[in-house]
Design a protein that fits this description.
Elements lengths: L1 E2 L16 E9 L8 E9 L4 E8 L6 E17 L2 E18 L11 E7 L7 E8 L5 E11 L7 H4 L8 H7 L13 E4 L16 E7 L7 H22 L3 E7 L5 H10 L7 E11 L11 E3 L12 E3 H9 L5 E8 L26 H9 L2 E7 L9 E2 L3 E2 H14 L9 H16 L15 E7 L1
Parallel strand pairs: 10-12, 11-12, 11-13, 13-16, 16-17
Antiparallel strand pairs: 1-13, 1-16, 2-3, 2-9, 3-4, 4-5, 5-6, 6-7, 7-8, 8-9, 13-14, 14-15, 17-20, 18-19
């Protein structure tokens, strides 16, 4: 009955997105003699969402086109060279022209389908083929000529102009000239124990980030998955601190320190300023409160031993939020990743989203600043509604955690066209968590469906 939580990015302090894949794929359709060569930029987030842009010209190079398409990602199996392979299709949808230098402005583009496959020895799906459905129902079969994974350093102005107008948000975000500022030292990261509430900070700042992480890493059944979440969440929060240049007070309650008493001490010792940010995260076992039918948020199982009284060694997620809100910080986030089902039921292991090779790309700073520094209010979000399991596995940790992290990475990326909100980020995490849960095999006695529950009360 457990599940993990909050955000992820990459290696500590590297500030690069690892939930993003950017491919440049060159291919040809030999039968299309007027327009034989194509180059696609495929942008895919770790939750299976994204888009592609395709550039092509006529054979004489007198006409140039760039088409934008969303894609529908479809995982399946296909025979390739007589052998079964796992495949991933990116089916282009809703094509629209970004650039069209021809006189025929109403031309219709037949969407491409980019095919990826996974070898038995590889964890990632990689580009393999391309098809296109003709208007008469027949297919064109293309050939991939070259493939390149793009990182930040590869995105020169010349390359980006192949797919984006200079007036588009991504181009502006990527090449915006930053105002010259003196280099600031890295913010202090104070690792606090519940018994040491007041570490000395070498520098003061108008905003501090307080992070309480509670993770049942010693549990023999779910400890490996919880540990994955601990690493992901702590790395992400530290990255936010460094990226925004704000000090971090970090309280970790895991391993032998995992207990209700430690959580209560950490909450008592929490003393945020009026402009501070508080993040509370729980990853472990959870269960629904059958004594209060109206309580939609889960109880935390904070027992150190299975022989402890679970009705005593527990706290409710909403109880934690209320304890934090009275501290009067500017922004409060309570995120929990645990089951919300009957006490005693074990959480099943779930499958993953398909994996593709990751690109390295930094966040858009103005988006991150607005999300954390201009938001005021509270957020509570949990992995599953009353009566449901919270899925996870040892590869990605908790479904909700993984999807929330990916959603944040997506909305902080330079590809976005507007400042993100907490509502957008958590709503997408809810949608993709549910979608992933429904790919699992179910029995007559278990439901695969997992619907995160949340309330966002945040203003700017």
């Amino acid at each position: 009955m457990r599940k993990p939580l909050l955000f992820i990015t990459a290696l500590l302090f590297c500030l690069e997105s690892y939930s993003l894949t950017i491919y440049e794929i060159n291919y040809e359709f030999k039968n299309l003699t007027d327009f034989p060569r194509y180059t696609a930029m495929l942008v895919r987030y770790g939750n299976g969402t994204g888009f592609m842009r395709v550039k092509y010209s006529n054979k004489a190079n007198t006409q140039t086109y760039v088409v934008h398409m969303e894609f529908n990602e479809v995982e399946g199996r296909s025979k390739i060279d007589g052998l079964p392979h796992l495949t991933l299709q990116f089916k282009g949808e809703n094509p629209r022209y970004i650039i069209n230098t021809s006189k025929e402005k109403q031309e219709v583009y037949n969407p491409d389908v980019l095919w990826f496959r996974k070898e038995s020895t590889d964890k990632n799906f990689k580009p393999w083929g391309v098809t296109s459905l003709n208007s008469d129902g027949t297919f064109e079969y293309g050939k991939i000529l070259s493939v390149k994974v793009l990182n930040t350093n590869d995105l020169s102005k010349a390359l980006v102009k192949n797919y984006f107008l200079e007036t588009e948000s991504f181009y502006a975000n990527l090449f915006r000239q930053a105002d010259p500022q003196p280099i600031k030292p890295k913010p202090d990261v104070a690792v606090i124990t519940p018994g040491n509430p007041s570490p000395s900070m070498s520098s003061a700042a108008p905003t501090k980030l307080h992070f309480i992480l509670v993770a049942n890493t010693n549990d023999p059944r779910i400890g490996y998955s919880v540990q994955k979440d601990l690493v992901n969440i702590s790395s992400q929060v530290k990255d936010v601190s460094v990226f925004l240049g704000i000090p971090l007070n970090y309280v970790e309650i895991s391993g032998a320190k995992f207990s209700k008493a430690s959580v209560e001490t950490a909450l008592t010792n929490l003393k945020p300023g009026a402009n501070d940010i508080v993040i509370f995260y729980y990853s472990g076992h959870g269960y629904s409160n059958d004594r209060k039918a109206e309580e939609e948020y889960p109880q935390f199982d904070l027992r150190q031993s299975r022989f402890d009284d679970v009705q005593v060694a527990t706290m409710n997620a909403s109880e934690v939020l209320n304890k934090i809100k009275v501290k009067n910080a500017r922004l409060n986030l309570v995120i929990t990743d645990c089951c919300n089902s009957s006490l005693g039921l074990l959480k099943p292991e779930g499958k993953n989203f398909a994996l593709t090779t990751k690109s390295l790309m930094s966040w858009e700073k103005s988006f991150c600043y607005d999300l954390f520094m201009k938001s005021k209010g509270s957020v509570i979000a949990t992995a599953a509604k009353k009566g449901q399991y919270a899925y996870g596995n040892t590869d990605v940790g908790g479904y909700f955690t993984s999807n929330l992290i990916t959603s944040m990475e997506k909305y902080l990326s330079k590809f976005q066209t507007a400042t993100p909100t907490w509502q957008q980020i958590i709503a997408e995490a809810q949608t993709t968590t549910t979608s992933l849960s429904l790919t699992n095999l179910c029995t007559a006695n278990t439901t695969c469906r997992q619907d995160p529950v949340y309330v966002v009360n945040v203003s700017k």
